[in-house]
Write a structure and sequence with these properties.
Elements: H1 4-12, H2 17-23, H3 42-51, H4 67-76, H5 86-89, H6 92-101, H7 117-126, H8 136-139, H9 142-151, H10 161-164, H11 167-173, H12 175-178
Helix pairs in contact: 3-4, 4-6, 6-7, 7-9, 9-11
Length: 179
């Protein structure tokens, strides 16, 4: 967490590109205080999100729509997909990369990706309860249900009732009875 003097100094250098080129290597979130031109500089933002994906919050809208920037940010911190442009929230590569780090990002994914089996499995394998944001079709999918249940049984209420009766699902739910 930056100290008050660091924030004050960053504010004093709002227009100093060279200053921010170095600053983001150690305190990337201070990019917040840079001017719009600096927050739209791909090289500076790429360096910032490599250190802390959360710096994506302060990127220009143009860079929130840049796949290279997004992939770097979500590799570092999956949850930062929440800052992605709508176009990239529908990009399977970006969102699966994010989901592998933080399954919660299924919440931010496009409707199409909420109905994409690979995407949903990546998300529920990391955070099972996020199954509630998967399409109804995939809540009835056995592979998706198994992936979610292996992560945590807390997702059971979001699995289709008929599917809950499946023999393989029951083995996961009641391993002692399966012996």
């Amino acid at each position: 967490m930056p100290e008050a003097r660091e924030v004050i100094e960053a504010r004093e250098h709002t227009n100093d590109k060279k200053y921010y080129e170095e600053l983001v290597k150690t305190m990337p979130l201070l990019i917040e205080w840079a001017n719009d031109e600096i927050r739209d500089d791909k090289t500076i933002l790429l360096e910032a999100v490599k250190v802390d994906g959360g710096a994506l919050e302060f990127a220009s809208d143009r860079l929130k729509d840049d796949k290279d920037i997004l992939l770097e940010a979500v590799n570092q911190a999956g949850w930062t997909a929440c800052y992605a442009s709508d176009r990239l929230k529908a990009d399977k590569d970006v969102m699966i990369t994010a989901a592998k780090n933080d399954g919660q990002v299924l919440y931010f994914a496009s409707q199409e990706l909420r109905d994409d089996k690979d995407m949903v499995i990546a998300a529920v394998s990391q955070k099972s309860i996020i199954l509630k944001y998967a399409s109804l079709r995939l809540r009835k999918d056995k592979d998706v249900a198994i992936a979610a249940l292996k992560q945590s049984k807390k997702c059971l209420e979001y699995i289709d009732e008929e599917l809950q009766k499946d023999e393989d699902i029951q083995k996961i739910l009641n391993p002692e009875e399966a012996k």
